[in-house]
Every structure is written in C-alpha cells, then in structure tokens.
TrEMBL record:
The keyword Signal does not apply. Keywords: DNA-binding, Transcription, Transcription regulation. One of its GO terms (molecular function) is DNA-binding transcription factor activity. It comes from the Bacteria. Residues 18-78 form the HTH tetR-type domain. The lineage of its organism: Bacteria, Bacillati, Actinomycetota, Actinomycetes, Kitasatosporales. InterPro entries: Homeodomain-like_sf (IPR009057), HTH-type_TetR-like_transc_reg (IPR050109), HTH_TetR (IPR001647), Tet_transcr_reg_TetR-rel_C_sf (IPR036271), TetR_C (IPR011075). It comes from Streptomyces violaceusniger. Residues 41-60 bind DNA. Pfam families: TetR_C_11 (PF16859), TetR_N (PF00440). This is HTH tetR-type domain-containing protein.
Length: 213
C-alpha cells in the first residue's frame, strides 16, 4: 500500500517502478530492431523488461500505441556542437551516427518502417521526425558554421552534402563495406572535396585535419 501525499492515508495499488516507462520504450525499440513490425508484440516487450503485459498495457493501451511511443522515444543525445574545424566536426558527427545506429539497430528499424510504409505511413513519419530530421539538422549546423568561418563555399548545396554524408553509411553497410576505422574521416574528406573553398588548406584553423585531395 502507498500513502496519499495529501491525506497521509494509504493509497491503492503498488508504487510504480521507477523508470519503468523508459525501460519499456527502450525494450520496445530493441524488439522492433530484432523482430521487425510483423514480429513485434507487447508480450515480447514485457518479457524483455521482466514485467507483466498488464504493466505495459496500463501505460500503452494498444500495440500500435506502444510502437508509436517507442519511435517517438528515439532521439539523438549528446550531439557534438560545431567548433571552428568543419572537418573534425563532420568526422565526430559521422562517428556519433554510426555508434547510434549500431546501438539501437537503426538500419533494421528503418527497414521495418519502410517495409510497412503503405499500410502504416505514420510510423515512418514518426521516426523521420524523431531521428532523421534532427540528425540532418546537426550536420547542417556544422556546414553552416563552416560557411560562416570561410571553410565551406557560400554557393555549396548543403542539403545535398548532408545526404552524401549520411547516405554513405546506408550505402556502405548494404554493400558490405566496413564503416569503422577511418571510415568517418574518408567520408568527411569526400564530402568536403565538393564543397570546401579552393584555398581551404591555407585558411582552415591551425591544428585542423587535412583534407585529402
């Protein structure tokens, strides 16, 4: 029994397990990544958290409500802020992105949403708003800072440059190419070769990484 905060009288039910909502959503993301939408079930999520299905349903009344909440729960944390070195910033963002995808099974999760896009377009829209667009914006901030500091051309198509940077992970993963080691640096150099100012090697801040031309 619990006590009512106002009256001091015993309240009904057990106290809620601290952090259970977050644990359920984290588990739902893992189940989505491993089982896909077709294999996703509340029972599997409950088992992952070692709790009862009733506990999950008390917070998320339907399977689709839980899926939607899990995709909304996906977020990008601890994104590095731009510095005065656009190349180093791009490398750091690319490494951050690959670590995130590997941690949550991002490609599998995206594939599940794409596979059911015609039947449940709202799921793809949810993951687009919770992760894809915020991640693109973090890359755009770096490139805009590069323009402001004279490292990136004013006429550069920044949106296309971001697509090239982010899309490289999908393309290389599907091709079976490694995305570890110096992968992030190679992608950053490839992107910057198309948008950096011609004399970037002379104008970039002291200590910055070298762009391979």
């Amino acid at each position: 029994m619990t006590e009512d905060n106002k009256t001091g009288k015993p309240g009904r039910g057990r106290p809620k397990k601290e952090g259970i909502d977050t644990a359920i959503l984290d588990a739902a993301i893992r189940v989505l990544a491993t089982e896909g939408l077709e294999g996703f079930s509340v029972a599997k999520v409950a088992a992952e958290v070692s709790t009862a299905k009733a506990t999950v349903y008390s917070r998320f009344p339907t399977r689709m409500a839980l899926i939607g909440a899990a995709l909304t729960h996906l977020r990008i944390d601890n994104v590095p802020e731009p510095t005065d070195d656009v190349r180093s910033d791009l490398v750091e963002l690319l490494e951050h992105m690959t670590a995130d995808y590997e941690r949550i099974g991002g490609l599998s999760l995206t594939g599940s949403c794409l596979a059911t896009e015609k039947r449940t377009p709202e799921l793809l829209e949810t993951i687009r708003m919770s992760t894809f667009l915020p991640r693109r914006e973090s890359f755009l901030r770096v490139l805009r800072a590069g323009q402001a500091s004279g490292q990136v051309r004013e006429d550069a198509d920044l949106e296309q440059a971001v697509s090239a940077a982010v899309g490289a992970y999908y393309a290389d993963h599907l091709a079976g190419r490694p995305t570890g080691g110096g992968w992030a640096a190679r992608v950053a150099d490839s992107v910057l070769r198309g948008i950096a100012v011609p004399d970037f090697s002379r104008t970039r801040p002291s200590g910055s990484g070298r762009i391979t031309r």
